[in-house]
Amino acid sequence: MIALVLACILTAILSMLYLGGAYNLSFLGEHEQGKETKYIETLGYDYQPQPKDMRSWLPKLTLHGKPSWNSSELDSFSDESRNILKNNKDIALQTLDPDSDSLLILTPLKNNAKHLTRYFELIDSLEYPRDKISIVFLVSNSTDQTQQMLIESKRQYQEQAPKDKWFKRFDIFRQDFFYALPRDQRHLREKQRDRRIMMARAQNYLWTRALRNEQWVLWIDGDLEYYPPSIIHDLMAYDKDVIVPNCLVPRRNGQGRWENSVYDFNSWQETRKSLNMIGKLTDDAFLVEGTPLITHCKHMDKFDKGKGLVPLDGVGGTFTLVKAHMHRSGVGFLTWLFQHQVETEGFAKLAKSNGFGVFGLPNHNIRHGEE
């Protein structure tokens, strides 16, 4: 027993002496330790990795995407490593530069069956190479024929149509979020925060599932009535991170006549008055356009008629063109308050805070279906 105790004491003394030499901290006072801590080295000396002794089993790819390993090397790897290597080409294709001018059209849908015929008529009218367009839908909480119509549309476009009408990709996802709100309540102010957060969840689900190596992402509402066939080229020509046209809707005026008025009040520019109002809000205050709240933001219809491109601070989601690298960088639709906004306006605020540009075209009009 005495021998065991003596052995433990000797071991402790030797360890202290070793650590003192290795770290240069043996028996230093508090003041001296503060001066010496910069000399601490994890192993007692400067550690330098030795690449030649650390073989990497994940080889680089050639310019043509072919693996640079040979069969004898592959045989020496584990089954798991071999499977990863065999998939490496496909993985790399998803991380290379985007396919030039490729466009991913994303549309979340709920009970949209009555609008799908017009939706595809407008898509077919686009003056853009069909083989550059991928189109992906998310069906959520639908109780009508939306999903069945999409499945049939995919069969018609991708199998029965002439080859020049085929999309590069046509996908349909289904994800229910179990959120029900009567259509006549969808614009009530007290419903907006929960409703918009649910919309953001659907949008984030869609783009994270759908985005591959496309260069552009276009978010389109499922119930638009009109947009010009040239609109994709028109918006891309400005080469902006985020850009939206002015979305109008036909409404009856005080005299009972139909006229186009602004539909998407989520596209706006901050003003001195709006910023002054924001400065007085608590951090948890949620802002949304519409009565009775007056935000003092400048909406798209308030810009001069001759005005071209204008910077925006909020955008809607009716027709929004986005450079795909923004989404890849992590800018999505917010399900939490950021600068008092969620969903698309939160997306715009987050984009700007990350250095991206957000713009609108007040005189480039599209039209939403009558409500």
UniProtKB/TrEMBL annotation:
SUPFAM superfamilies: Nucleotide-diphospho-sugar transferases. Residues 1-22 form the signal peptide. InterPro entries: Mannan_Polymerase_Subunit, Nucleotide-diphossugar_trans. It comes from the Eukaryota. Pfam families: Anp1. The keyword Signal applies. Keywords: Signal. Belongs to the ANP1/MMN9/VAN1 family. This is Uncharacterized protein. It comes from Coemansia aciculifera.
